[in-house]
Specification:
The complex is a heterodimer of chains A (607) and B (224). Chain A is an alpha+beta fold and 607 residues long. In chain A, 51% of the residues lie in helices and 15% in strands. Chain A contains 13 helices and 14 strands. In chain B, helix 6 crosses helix 8. The chains are: A alpha+beta (607), B alpha/beta (224).
């Protein structure tokens, strides 16, 4: 069984679930996307940070080794490898200034730029070494040397190695040595023989010249032209500006340079980097986890909210639907309270909602119709009972009377006559009621014969003529030509008799009655006209109803009980005809049309 | 006792009239509401038997109008309408009794007698005065234990006097209540029947019960 409430609720729930689902999903998606973006940017950030940190660590290492290299570079001394004996120039020069045996040959070699000269001066090539280099080096860690250095002559020959190098050697790449980046550091990473990986910086170092002390002023005059004055200064002059050597365009053989390589074990760096990596991965993982957790929490929250909203809305919706259906319930209660007694709908139509008002209005109308019909039925029942009971009372009273005391035969006879009359009266009434009952039950069977309507009309007129004459009424018949019709003669007779009786009964004194039978375009037309007081327009429709009497308090000779015309109409309908009534205060006319079926009687040359 | 029968069904009217007259009632008949209204208002009846389904004016309307006009005559409604609603309607409009058709004649007569007693506040169906006993049901009279035979007219007259016992009833009253509309009014008739009554009731008995008040009427001796 369909229920408005149920279907409303179900549909509403579905709609709500769908809506909530959609909204939740959308919310989740957009949140997830936002979160995803955030995570992404966070990840990028972490990446950048990681990269930066790694870079920083690397850079720090590089910087440190560079710094160490520079420190060492600063500590580098130029010196001759050894003197093969003392040269005479040397001796001479020593006499003139301190450490002249070194300074003079040195100057000479610089000035004359010739290896030959050097040989002549019995100088061994210049060499360089770093004093107390090992002091700069950090201590070993866990038995393994951490940092290394190596220096090279400009030619690329190794000069000095750190103790930590042990038996292994670095090498200096020719490209680096000969490269354009003369004074830029070059970093690389090298794997050593024992498998150690080191980060190495190679740089060109200009070594401060060995100096015998401040030059005497008269050296100035011996200077080759074009030279700028040497700066007087301490033993360890700061490195000359790059690209120049005391004003002389530098070349390899002139500028005392060495190559320095400083390397540091990258293990710590690797460790740090690994640490960073681990942390990074950890961070990423954490990020993932957080994001996942956030999403999960979001899902959960959405779910909870969704459920809560759903429940609340369901509850609210149920209540509201219930509220909305209240008028319906009130209406249905009102309907159930309608009793057969008063046919009233106990509800205030004004207070009903718009949608229900038409229904209520119709209901009230229908109830009114019902009431009227009901009253009609009640009235009809009362009429029947009255109609039957009155002659019955007459009959019984007559019998009571007859039996009260001993009477004469003549008296008894009269009583019998009276009883018979009452019996006949009741009989007629019963017949009419039965006729109506049969019509109702459609149990009537028509005994169809060929009936001459004109003849039948005449006979009926003859039968009622005495009655008409008794009332001073003039009965005229106009039915001279035979008019055949397949019909049930008894019923037709009943119709004519009824109409005639009515015409007699409802007529004026000295009035007239006209009975006409005619053929009329494929049907038989029967007319009964009287000169009575007429029937009011509003009653004209209702006179064919059962027990309807135009004057409700009027009771004719009890014979008709308002059933006559009902029977007439019933029979005419059964015969497929029509009956109409027209009336004025001058009289009434009933017109009956009975159709002649197609194709009959033409053979008889019928008019 | 005079009765107005308002009923339009002629066979029933005939039977009822005969039955009532045989019981000593004087009966007037009206066959439609208009006639009934007119007669009810113009003559004094002991009881009006009223059918409800009448031509011209229906019974309930008549009843309502009568009561509103102050007509106090007893009304017995005699009708085929037998539902409780109908009975209640009839009684509440002022009917004194309600009898449905078909009915037993005996019941109607008994109810009429009861209504008449009620009208005179007599509870005992046997009217007594001194040693006179009038059985209104059996329609017999005894004085001093001795049954006395009266004609219906005589009985009616005696009963009338007995109901008005101790009160003077004029000839006109007697006439009105004992004779129907068709009887010829000769005041002498009343005197004649009084004389008949006296002969049967008072002769040979003490004290005399039927008394004359000159210029006023007659009365049955009441308690002193």
């Amino acid at each position: 069984m369909k229920s408005i409430r149920l279907s409303l609720i179900v549909n509403f729930l579905l709609l709500l679930a769908a809506a909530l689902g959609a909204v939740s999903w959308l919310a989740y998606q957009s949140s997830a996307q936002t979160l995803q973006g955030k995570v992404e940017s966070q990840r990028l950030f972490l990446e950048a940070e990681f990269t930066a940190r790694c870079q920083e660590a690397r850079t720090a290492l590089d910087r440190r080794i560079l710094q160490q290299a520079q420190t060492l570079a600063g500590l580098t001394r130029s010196t001759f490898l050894h003197l093969e004996g003392v040269s005479p120039i040397g001796l001479l020069s020593t006499a003139t200034f301190p450490q002249g045996h070194l300074a003079v040959p040195l100057w000479l070699s610089e000035t004359f730029h010739s290896p030959l000269a050097l040989r002549m001066l019995r100088l061994q090539p210049l060499t360089f070494f770093i004093e107390s280099a090992e002091d700069v080096m950090p201590a070993e860690e866990e038995g393994r040397p951490r940092e290394f250095f190596q220096t090279y002559r400009p030619s690329g020959q190794p000069l000095q190695r750190s103790a930590s190098l042990g038996d292994s050697w670095f090498s200096l790449d020719d490209k680096v040595r000969g490269g354009a980046h003369l004074f830029q550091e070059h970093f690389d990473t090298v794997k050593m023989a024992d498998g150690l990986t080191v980060r190495r910086v190679s740089l060109k170092v200009t070594v401060p010249r060995f100096r015998a002390g401040p030059l005497p002023p008269w050296w100035r005059f011996l200077k080759p032209s074009g030279k700028s004055s040497r700066p007087p200064g301490p033993f360890f002059a700061p490195p000359p500006p790059p690209g120049t050597f005391f004003g002389i365009r530098p070349s390899e053989t002139e500028v005392p340079v060495i190559f320095m390589q400083y390397a540091s074990d990258t293990a710590p760096l690797e460790a740090t980097l690994a640490e960073f990596q681990a942390k990074h991965e950890n961070d990423l993982h954490q990020l993932e986890e957080d994001s996942a957790r956030t999403l999960a929490a979001l899902r959960q929250r959405l779910l909870v909210i969704g459920l809560a909203t759903f429940s609340a809305t369901v509850a609210g919706g149920l209540w509201l639907i219930g509220l909305g259906l209240v008028p319906l319930r009130r209406l249905s209660e009102a309907v159930s309270q309608v009793s057969a007694r008063d046919f009233q709908l106990p509800i205030d139509q004004e207070k009903l909602p718009q949608e229900l008002q038409p229904i209520a209005h119709r209901l009230v109308q229908t109830l009114q119709l019902l009431q009227r019909a009901f009253n009609r039925e009640k009235q009809a029942a009362a009429d029947i009972s009255h109609e039957l009971r009155t002659p019955l009372a007459a009959l019984l009273t007559t019998i009571d009377l007859a039996l009260r005391k001993l009477r004469t035969p003549e008296e008894y006879r009269q009583f019998f006559v009276d009883c018979r009359a009452s019996g006949q009266h009741m009989n007629q009434l019963v017949e009419r009621l039965l006729a109506l009952a049969r019509l109702d039950a459609a149990a009537d069977r028509m005994q169809i014969q060929d009936v001459d309507v004109a003849d039948l009309a005449n006979r009926c007129a003859d039968m009622v003529r005495p009655l008409a004459q008794e009332k001073g009424l003039d009965l005229r018949v106009q039915a001279s030509r035979p008019t055949l019709l397949p019909a049930d003669p008894d019923k037709l007779r009943e119709v004519v008799n009824n109409l005639l009786h009515n015409a007699i009964e409802y007529n004026r004194p000295s009035g007239s009655i006209d009975l006409v039978v005619q053929r009329d375009n494929g049907s038989v037309r029967l007319e009964v006209r009287d000169t009575g007081i007429g029937i009011a327009p509003e009653d004209r429709e209702r006179i064919f109803e059962r027990f309807f009497r135009a004057d409700p308090s009027r009771q004719a000779e009890g014979l008709h009980a308002g059933l006559g015309l009902a029977i007439v109409k019933g029979y005419i309908d059964l015969m497929g005809g029509t009956i109409g009534v027209d009336s004025s205060d001058k009289g009434t006319i009933f017109v009956v049309h009975l159709p002649i079926p197609e194709g009959r009687y033409t053979a008889r040359g019928y008019e | 006792m005079r009765i107005l029968l308002v009923e339009d069904h002629k066979p029933l009217v005939r039977a009822l009239r005969q039955g009532l007259e045989e019981e000593g009632f004087a009966v007037d008949v009206a066959t439609d509401g208009e006639e009934g209204d007119f007669k009810a208002r113009s003559s004094g009846y002991d009881v009006i038997i009223l059918d409800l389904m009448l031509p011209k004016i229906d019974g309930l309307t008549l009843l309502r109008n009568w009561r509103r006009a102050g007509l106090t005559t007893h009304v017995l409604v005699l009708t085929a309408k037998d539902t409780t609603e109908d009975k209640v309607a009839g009684l509440d409009l002022g009917a004194d009794d309600y009898l449905t058709k078909p009915f037993q004649l005996e019941e109607l007569l008994a109810r009429l007698r009861a209504l008449i007693r009620r009208g005179h506040f007599a509870k005992d169906p046997v009217l007594r005065a001194f040693d006179l006993e009038i059985d209104t049901v059996a329609r017999t009279v005894k004085r001093g234990g001795q049954p006395i035979h009266l004609t219906p007219r005589e009985f009616a007259l005696l009963q009338f006097l007995a109901y008005h016992r101790g009160k003077v009833v004029s000839r006109a009253m007697i006439w009105e209540h004992l004779y129907d509309e068709y009887d010829e009014n000769t005041s002498n008739v009343v005197d004649v029947y009084i004389r008949y009554l006296r002969t049967k009731i008072d002769k040979g008995f003490e004290p005399p019960l039927i008394l004359t008040r000159w210029g006023e009427g007659y009365l049955l001796r009441g308690e002193e």
